[in-house]
């Protein structure tokens, strides 16, 4: 094969990043935007030792799983990867991603993976948008690039994002902002963050390279007049050279310091930097699943490790005797303590530190967990934490994962430590993308 050579192939699979997968002469070909079942004419764009890449020139026979992407920016904007695939097929793809990871990495072939729990309406589900800014307007990063694709709407965001985009485009046009230059580290406006709740209330965060907001009154007037249900406007100061979206310093310019969100009967306060699952509706589905697997009777001691702002532990606390949440990020622990007070939950204690260090200290005090809930970052659990679970002989583990690969790796280790996988349940928190959450129930069989 040669670069720019044209061939016709049938695509057999798809990656989590939305690349169709075919084969030519026993060599894998990745085709951007392809769908399993497509017959396509492609042009070879790169040839590596173990694979090739190609781009679609002509869709000869479309797959029965293909749909017209409902977003006009799909293929340019990097936010979604699977909008060319019908939603039921998206769920099947995510099921296969989880199953393949468990079998290939974890060696787990004896436990069936449940069908992915999807959304009835897989759009307008995000409660947080991080808009990028360029001279062409408000948008998002292009695929595999820091080039910005201007947009007028985003189907993953609430409908009020249209007014946010329009408002800041008008302010940019009127010269109210000096744009930030990433290379030179000059200028002011780095981005806009919109946070919303299920009631449709908005928090607008202006991310600036400095503390002084020029034309503040005009900007606030435009925001409050054009964007519906604005409860808070912040200036977030981010003077770092890195690509972190938000800095640590916030100045409330208008309104209330926080907006409220609810999961079940619990209330949580959201600030600019608060961690909170971005799909509130599916988060309740996820937490109800954790609650079912934990099967608490009111007598158990629960450890909520990598607990973040404490949402899972708080959600389960009323069915446990005592809950201990451990989290390394100090601000998250402070938010968790505030959330506990707000919801008048007394039987939960939050500890700042590494889970693998703090949990054994509790055991030394005579506090042993009956159930551990794990919700680690994408890199998965620290090996020391998994060893600690073995040493404490914890009877039941509920593992919440956002990365099937590291989940499979950790489950393999826990199985070697005497744990058995009882149930695997994926949940779709991010329709249109290649991401999938998975909840796994494990029990100790080797005591």
From TrEMBL:
Question: What does the record give under GO molecular function?
Answer: methyltransferase activity
Q: What class of enzyme is it?
A: transferase
The entry marks the following residues as binding S-adenosyl-L-methionine, namely 277, 306, 327, 375
Catalytic-site annotation from UniProt: 402 (nucleophile), 402
InterPro entries attached here?
Answer: MeTrfase_TrmA_AS (IPR030390), NA-bd_OB-fold (IPR012340), SAM-dependent_MTases_sf (IPR029063), TRAM_dom (IPR002792), U5_MeTrfase_fam (IPR010280)
Keywords from the UniProt entry: Methyltransferase, S-adenosyl-L-methionine, Transferase
| SUPFAM superfamilies (UniProt xref) | Nucleic acid-binding proteins, S-adenosyl-L-methionine-dependent methyltransferases
Q: Which CDD domains match?
A: AdoMet_MTases (cd02440)
Membrane-spanning ranges: none
Please verify whether the record's keywords include Ribosomal protein: no
TRAM domain segment(s): 1-58
One biological process term in Gene Ontology:
methylation
- Tell me which EC number(s) this protein carries: 2.1.1.190
Source taxon at top rank? Bacteria
The UniProt record lists the keyword Methyltransferase = yes
What PANTHER family does the annotation carry? RNA M5U METHYLTRANSFERASE, TRNA (URACIL(54)-C(5))-METHYLTRANSFERASE
Family membership, please give it: Belongs to the class I-like SAM-binding methyltransferase superfamily. RNA M5U methyltransferase family.
Q: What is this protein called?
A: 23S rRNA (Uracil(1939)-C(5))-methyltransferase RlmD
Q: Which organism is it from?
A: Eubacterium limosum
The gene designation is rlmD
């Amino acid at each position: 094969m040669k670069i720019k050579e044209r061939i016709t192939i049938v695509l057999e699979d798809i990656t989590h990043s939305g690349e169709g997968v075919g084969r030519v002469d026993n060599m894998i070909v990745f085709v951007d935007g392809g769908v399993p079942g497509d017959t396509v004419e492609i042009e070879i764009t790169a040839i590596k030792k173990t694979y090739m890449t190609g781009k679609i020139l002509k869709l000869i026979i479309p797959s029965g799983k293909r749909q017209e992407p409902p977003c006009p920016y799909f293929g340019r904007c990097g936010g979604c990867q699977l909008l060319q695939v019908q939603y039921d097929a998206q769920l099947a793809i995510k099921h296969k991603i989880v199953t393949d990871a468990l079998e290939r990495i974890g060696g787990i072939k004896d436990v069936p993976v449940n069908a992915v729990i999807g959304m009835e309406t897989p759009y307008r589900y995000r409660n947080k948008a991080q808009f990028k800014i360029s001279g062409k307007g408000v948008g998002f990063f292009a695929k595999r690039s820091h080039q910005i694709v201007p947009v007028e709407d985003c189907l993953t965001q609430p409908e009020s994002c249209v007014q946010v985009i329009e408002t800041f485009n008008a302010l940019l046009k009127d010269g109210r902002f000096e744009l930030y230059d990433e290379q030179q580290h000059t200028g002011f406006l780095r981005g806009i963050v919109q946070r919303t709740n299920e009631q449709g209330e908005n928090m607008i965060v202006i991310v600036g390279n400095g503390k002084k907001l020029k034309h503040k009154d005009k900007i606030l007037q435009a925001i409050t007049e054009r964007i519906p249900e604005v409860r808070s406007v912040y200036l977030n100061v981010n003077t770092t050279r890195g690509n972190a979206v938000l800095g640590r310093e916030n100045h409330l310019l208008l309104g209330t310091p926080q907006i409220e969100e609810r999961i079940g009967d619990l209330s949580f306060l959201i600030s600019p930097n608060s961690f909170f699952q971005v799909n509130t509706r599916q988060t309740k589905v996820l937490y109800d699943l954790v609650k079912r697997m934990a099967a608490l009777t009111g007598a158990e001691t629960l450890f909520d490790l990598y607990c973040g702002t404490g949402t899972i532990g708080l959600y389960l606390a009323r069915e446990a005797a005592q809950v201990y949440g451990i989290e390394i990020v100090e601000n998250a622990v402070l938010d968790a303590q505030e959330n506990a007070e707000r919801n008048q939950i007394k039987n939960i204690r939050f500890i700042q530190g590494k889970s693998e260090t703090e949990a054994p200290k509790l055991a030394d005090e005579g506090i042993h967990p009956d159930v551990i809930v794990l919700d680690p970052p994408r890199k998965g659990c620290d090996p020391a934490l998994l060893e600690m679970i073995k040493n404490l002989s914890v009877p039941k583990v509920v593992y919440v994962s956002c990365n099937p690969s590291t989940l499979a790796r950790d489950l393999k280790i826990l199985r070697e430590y005497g744990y058995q996988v009882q149930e695997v349940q994926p949940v779709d928190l991010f329709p249109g993308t290649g991401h999938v959450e998975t909840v796994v129930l494990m029990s100790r069989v080797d005591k």
